[in-house]
Amino acid sequence: MSEQVIQTEKLTKRFGSFTAVDEISFSVAAGEIFGFLGANGAGKTTAMKMLTGLLAPTSGSATVAGFDVYRQTESIKRNIGYMSQRFSLYDDLTPRENIRFFGGIYGLGKSEIAEKGERLLDSLDLTEAADTRLAALPLGWKQKLAFSVALLHEPKLVFLDEPTGGVDPVTRRRFWDMIYEAAANGVTVFVTTHYMDEAEYCDRVSIMVDGRIAALDTPDGLKRSFEAMSMNDVFIRLARPAKRGEG
């Protein structure tokens, strides 16, 4: 049996009388690309915050990269990568400076940062732009750099929060090639997305509705369960408009 990098059992988060995440149970295997879908307010952001050690659960249990979400949040943060559409790198720094900064945060030594940084810049064809302010680079290049930086410290698991928002379809497909490569090297990828076609790229997909997991299966399994619908139609069938506030 594959190593389980994420395991949750009835994981719950309440804010007063409001239940944002309601007893979700699932596991994610090493090297798996796991899609986490849900409308705004469905609870997926709150769930991700608990799994990344940013928010304490109300009840239930979970381990991430072998660490407990209640007692070992700092260990979780050191052993995962994280990339968000909303924030990843600093626009006022150059690619080289961003690599140095985040390499230091991840606890890498100067020589290791220099070696990995040059290799990373070369692999992304960014050597000539290494000392250009990030704000001057196209969004697609920023996203690919941000993903590579999230893997700089060689984590077992990387969380991607809507990583391809705002980029063109060709760039999105190339970004997914990078995700496939990471997974082939044993990195577990936990990705939220609102692009239904991207759900097809995942090994398994979870769809959250009103704080609960409404469906969890492979893309083909979900389509079979819903009479060969497309992933977009499956999502529409399950994820009615939420009235739960942010989540």
TrEMBL record:
Keywords: ATP-binding, Nucleotide-binding. It comes from Chlorobaculum limnaeum. The lineage of its organism: Bacteria, Pseudomonadati, Chlorobiota, Chlorobiia, Chlorobiales. Residues 6-235 form the ABC transporter domain. One of its GO terms (molecular function) is ATP hydrolysis activity. PANTHER family: ABC TRANSPORTER G FAMILY MEMBER 20 ISOFORM X1, ATP-BINDING CASSETTE, SUB-FAMILY H, MEMBER 1. Pfam families: ABC_tran. It comes from the Bacteria. InterPro entries: AAA+_ATPase, ABC_transporter-like_ATP-bd, P-loop_NTPase. Transmembrane segments: none annotated. This is ABC transporter domain-containing protein.
